[in-house]
Amino acid sequence: MAAPVWAMINPKNGIGSGTVVVSANPHTGRVQRTGTITFRTHDGSTTVNRTVNQSPKSEFVEIGDGVSQLAGGTVQLNGTSNSSTLTFSLGGGADFVIQLPANYAAVGGQPVNTPNGQPIGGDPGAVKEYNFSIVVTVPAGNEGDEATVVVTTAGNQTATATIELTANILSVSPSEINLNQNGDPVNVTVTTSEEWNVS
Questions:
Q1: Which of 9, 65, 97, 165 is the most buried (most CB within 10 A)?
Q2: CA–CA separation, 141 vs 72, rounded Å?
Q3: Residue 41: which domain range?
């Protein structure tokens, strides 16, 4: 029996007594993953199977903000989740009314056109986190007008995206990007309804 592909085993062989280290990369799915690791003598006369489990990531959802030109139009909001179902709704206290579409796109390999509030086909979040996007229609308005879209998971985790009307159609945050000595990644949020590039 082959070890699960996500399990890293070191060393994979030896002579005499010893220690084997089993590890894995982070698991972003919301369901525990399980497999079997088989230890055997060189001649195959003795075999011992051990179950290996990896804890799941708690159900979560994240969504980025959006901007629209003062004349209004469509804005694509992008996010990440591992939930089986996402429900989009309008937040309170808005300066304008957003039109939510009936469907959104969940991408866990192949894009899945999913009705708002319905389970995602194939439940990609059980195995790993996936990206999603929703395109909303924004009316014309005034500089600084805002409205929010709330996304709620099957387990009632929520995230909120703010859409702002602005004459400035490109926003980048943070204002300064500071890398640590190790050069660990830093997320830089680009908010725009336009195509963009970095140089």
A1: 165
A2: 7
A3: 18-54
CA separation for the pair 139, 54 (Å, rounded)? 47
Dihedral pair phi/psi, residue 16, rounded to 5°: 75, -170
Looking at the DSSP bridge assignments, the partners of residue 137 are 74, 99
Within a 10 A sphere around the Cβ of 118, how many other Cβ atoms? Answer: 12
Residue at 4: amino acid letter:
P
- Together in a domain, 74 and 25: no
pTM over the 0.70 mark: yes
User: What integer pLDDT is reported at residue 108 of this predicted model?
Assistant: 60
Q: Are residues 36 and 113 in the same domain?
A: no
Give Dmax over CA atoms of the chain in angstroms. 78
Residue 173 lies in a domain: yes
For every residue of 56-114, DSSP letters joined together read PPPP-EEE--EEE-TT-EEEEEEEEE--SBEEEEEPSS-SS--B--SEEEEESSSEEEE
Instruction: Give the total number of structural domains in the chain.
Output: 2
- If residue 148 lies in a helix (H) or strand (E), which one and from where to where? strand 146-153
Gap between the Cα atoms of 83 and 29, Å rounded: 9
CATH number for 152? 2.60.40
One-letter amino acid of 73: G
Rg of the Cα trace of the chain? 23
